[in-house]
């Protein structure tokens, strides 16, 4: 199949584009992103696969978003014995048109056209090969899936020297495969029917096993009933012994619990007595601490009285120094403010003088701009009125030259008559009397017709002929052309055009000079810069207007900018000095205030601490007096001694009771009791369980004795044996079909391995152009590259760099396309490939593409033209 031309209309962002492809060789279609390169491959698929009536989302996606129109694709194709033009429009105004020009003309439309193209492609194109060899943008270059492609397999068979499998062999293999698949899956696992036989056998076996199990359980129940009778007698004896032992231990434990209660009460009394003794000791200790606190408070009050007396002289001195520093600070601030007023005034004078100078400079620039603009306007008016530029002058001169040439051709080609008299005679030429003298010939040109009359003798008519008329018409046409071109230029003739052209050149020169002057004065912004200039002039006028009248008289204003700046600098220096003096005065005043605040704080704190100390002395003394009034110190000491004695007696009584309790062994008795109760509970549970089991066994024996289990077992065995025979027959048929299919498949795979060699050789031949003469590759049975050997180093394909994998992927597709090319083949479309190749490899890949293009059609879509500049003989189509 060869793609000759594609025409897209209203397809995505493409409004109307037609591209021709070379039938053999490399066609590189290059353009920027979103120019519509990938749309070409997409549109081919859409045209060949989809009906014009389809409403699939993929078709809706190609509709242009900026106009309400249906996407349209037209393709010109040669495939096999056919050549046709195929066109479809989708979504709006749908149509399908097919025009076949070879082998015989046909014209079809609608579904009939679509079906006809499908039949042609099915007859002439290996669709699997067409899909396998393409590289689509965004998917990366993976290895091509070419195993099992009929056209490639046949070409490789022939290249390997073997005979391709005929229709009979293929039909036999397919029939064997169909029979195999009726019993086995593609992965070699049995089909569901075999599982059905197996399931039925399992069900029958399960029924036999279940009946046998029921018989075995019946026999087990008979033996179990005998054992249960013996077990029940033993369990009754065990429970009676456990019951007696538990009664004895419960009596011992109740006596021990009484002793434990008495011990607990005595220990609680001892703990209460100890707490009372501790409270008595704490009360006595608190009385002693209260007396000591009164003494400490009196000492602290005396210390605060002394501190307050010591701080008074320093406070008075700090207050006096703070007042002096405040007066000095006020004077310094007044001097600083006066200097600031003078400095601001002189700075304003500087700004005024600067604005005055800026206004002068800006006004002068504005005047020069106005002059240049007026001159520019005059030059532009001249250029508008004068249309004789160099091109018009050249046209006028060319037309005038053609007129002169036409006149010269007419003069040179016009016939003439030469009259040479042998004796004096008079003749008339077009009615004019001419005297002829021997030796003096007369020549007369013939414009159209000349009448020669020899009076009384002969009359001769001489005609110029058709050729001379054509030269005359050419002269008239040339003269008309001169008039027309002069009229368009607005001049009368060539001389006037020369004068007008010189005037225009002078105007162009003047325009350029004035534009340069304006650009120098205003910059590149033009009118915006002029508006800015005028605004600056207005601002400068505003800054200078009324300043002198409003300014105070003293100190007087400086006469110029420099003098004003010197005065302002001196005022700034005086202001800085005054600020320094004020800052030092502020520092000293703050330090004096801080010292005064410190003394005042200390004095305040001393007074507060003295008051706090006096309040503490009064409060502590009052509290101690009130406490002694309630309970004396001697009474507290006596209560503490009595509480300590009572606590010691209670503790001794509790200890004696604890010793008696421990002699009874309470933990041992409790453990034995818990164990006896557990034994009793276990014996009771075992007895109940044994009785329940005896009842269940009795019930099963009664039920199973009436089921006829022996007869049921015989019937189940008969049914199981029948299913076993059916399964054996099915498995024999399945194994026979599996043997036949696997034998044929092994033979087919052996033939398949034979044609790996030609494909590997073709890939290696192309690959050596890129990787060097040491290249060797190893291929798998599914016609994929397993590894690459280069300089005796073998690397698995998956471990190669992305660029190397990409290059081998493209080379494999080129090799397949070249192998099938003698049978017609398919176009190889590469969309956005070789993105990971370095410059050296790109040059080599260009040579490989050129080599492949000698025998097959290669179409490259790219937004990076530099990748394919090394493809020799490539046809370049630029879009976008």
Features:
Rossmann fold, 67% helix, 12% strand, four-stranded parallel β-sheet, flat, 880 residues, six-stranded antiparallel β-sheet
CATH class of the domain at 2-162 and 755-878: Alpha Beta
Assign the CATH topology of the domain at 2-162 and 755-878.
Rossmann fold
- Please list the strands of the largest sheet in the order they lie side by side: 2-1-4-5-6-7
Low-confidence stretches: none
Query: The biggest beta sheet, please?
Result: 6 strands, antiparallel
Structure description:
Helices cover 67% and strands 12% of the residues. The protein is α+β, with helices and mostly antiparallel strands. Among the domains are: 2-162 and 755-878, P-loop containing nucleotide triphosphate hydrolases (Rossmann fold, 3-Layer(aba) Sandwich), CATH 3.40.50.300; 390-490, no CATH class. Strands 2-1-4-5-6-7 form a 6-stranded antiparallel beta sheet, with helices on one face. A hairpin with a 5-residue loop joins β5 (82-89) and β6 (95-102). α7 (192-385) packs across α11 (527-544), α7 crosses α15 and α17 crosses α18 (802-820). The two termini are 28 Å apart.
Topology:
Layout: E1 2-11, E2 14-20, E3 25-30, H1 38-49, H2 57-60, E4 72-79, E5 82-89, E6 95-102, E7 106-109, H3 110-124, H4 127-132, H5 150-160, H6 167-181, H7 192-385, H8 390-413, E8 416-419, E9 425-429, E10 432-436, E11 442-445, E12 449-454, E13 458-463, H9 466-489, H10 494-522, H11 527-544, H12 547-550, H13 561-630, H14 633-663, H15 666-704, H16 709-754, H17 756-771, E14 776-779, E15 785-790, E16 793-796, H18 802-820, E17 828-831, H19 839-852, E18 857-862, E19 875-878
Parallel strand pairs: 3-18, 3-19, 17-18
Antiparallel strand pairs: 1-2, 1-4, 4-5, 5-6, 6-7, 8-11, 9-10, 9-12, 12-13, 14-15, 15-16
Helix pairs in contact: 6-16, 7-10, 7-11, 7-13, 7-14, 7-15, 7-16, 8-9, 8-10, 17-18, 17-19, 18-19
